[in-house]
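ASSEMBLY PREDICTION REQUEST
Request ID: AP-0331
Submitted by: J.K., bench scientist
Number of chains: two
Total residues: 492
Priority: normal
Notes: Please return the full assembly, not individual chains.
Input sequences:
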Amino acid sequence: MSEFKKVNRSENYSEWYNYIVDAAELAQHSAVKGCMVIKPYGYAIWEKMQADLDKRFKATGHSNAYFPLFIPKSLFEAEEKNAEGFAKECAVVTHYRLKADPDNKGKLIVDPEAKLTEELVVRPTSEAIIWNTYRGWIQSYRDLPILINQWANVVRWEMRTRLFLRTAEFLWQEGHTAHATKDEAIAETTQMLKVYASFAEDIMAMPVIQGIKTANERFAGADETFCIEAMMQDGKALQAGTSHFLGQNFAKAFDVKFTGKDGKQDYVWATSWGVSTRLMGALIMTHSDDEGLVLPPKLAPIQVVIVPIFRSEEDFLAIQEKANNIKSELEAKGVSVKFDGRDTLKPGFKFAEWELKGVPVRLALGMRDIQNNTIEIARRDTKEKTSTSMDTVVDDVMTLLTDIQNNLYQRALDFRTAKTKVVNSKEEFLKVMDEGGFAMAHWDGSSESEEKIKEEYKATIRCIPLNNPQESGTCFFTGNTSKERVVFARAY
RNA sequence: CGGGGUGUAGCGUAGCCCGGUAUCGCGUCUGCUUUGGGAGCAGAAGGUCGUAGGUUCGAAUCCUGCCACCCCGACCA
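STATUS: Completed
Returned structure:
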């Protein structure tokens, strides 16, 4: 008997998470502290995310470009709040050469002669280098807007890392736009928030709350930070994407002015927005179960796997032929199909393995099916199995893929709804935090009470939802007057 | 960065207290038999015991430093 490690999601959520990442071959730890290797299967999912997002960015008028990994310290520190916010987690390059160690043959040391005259910060984000560049690109309102995105890696020296959720180096995209007016920049910020929200919901099948961050949670250097927040299966919140209205802060720090129609000079208005490989963690923690990864069809590198069940070589060849017909028909409809013809493994093993990898639909085809003109069709999300006619299987699969995509979203939404509680007292609040979930509670709007709540309950305000209903009430924590409820949760 | 734990073959482990170069399962390879939910038998290969030192005739085992990972904190866009 093979020994398969079983990890229960309900028993130990983080152990379960690590198990999924490992067993589904998404990523692994590397020889570099805090840095991960994204394995081919995991990277294939990220590539599908990238492809879809990139299309959305282009459709909203953005172009891709690339800026340097290294940022001279003097540029980095130009926007003070931003620099301060990131200072504690910056990797810094101080030298540009190694040399043979005179005292230790075969070893290298940093050449003390090769000290840089100015240290280079490895980008934790690229506002500084980009706005320094934009200065040279912008003179007139005719040069605006500038709508640029870059796909890049960034480094934030985190103390405690978790695969995909928080690593020292991660992959992301960062959009950086420049506008002539404040209104236009705000419109851009909200537009990109909507892009992220619809990507999360339509592609990842992950419901999100769109909202505004409080001052405490705001991006360093931004006037306003918008975000999408998702609920994981343990009831904790995960910030899945952010879109920042940067005001004129970077324009002032980097002296980026333009001449308007009226001939007057003004500072440029800015936005930036990003999502990262953290979305991989969000994806895992939104849908997966004790049998392994569960992928929404729109992100699955393999959407359908066909497992042949055979005794003899002749059987196998007959089944393979049928399977390949189905495969071609599905592929013609844009579905990615894998025929698992490995002859050393039993079907049951293959079933379990593809379930572990989250393949949405499995077809099993044996001689019995061929005689009856049937095929077994199984869905990963509910693990239901049925037999269908070979004549309708292609249509059935197409329908099922749509069903699974919708079902995953609905299931996640129902879960979030059930775990979101309206809370009016400290007791209720604590109960929700301990059980996991979102607490919709009145808050008096002060940073001080926000801090104290964080200290006492380890909970933060995830966001103030957009179009938040206004209702007068009293802050559950201080009893002060409040005009709206905000979303509280413990967070990743 | 603090507290606790772990590190032995690709994976999971026994051995460690009480020193004598390593156990078992899975996987891998070969052969035969199997195949509708994680196959069986037979044979084989595979290990600087995380790493660097120290103690010792002898170290997986004892001591020290370092590294990595896990859990809990601190930190965190």
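REVIEWER COMMENTS: Chain A has three domains: 13-71+125-287, 302-402, 419-489.
SIGN-OFF: pending second reviewer
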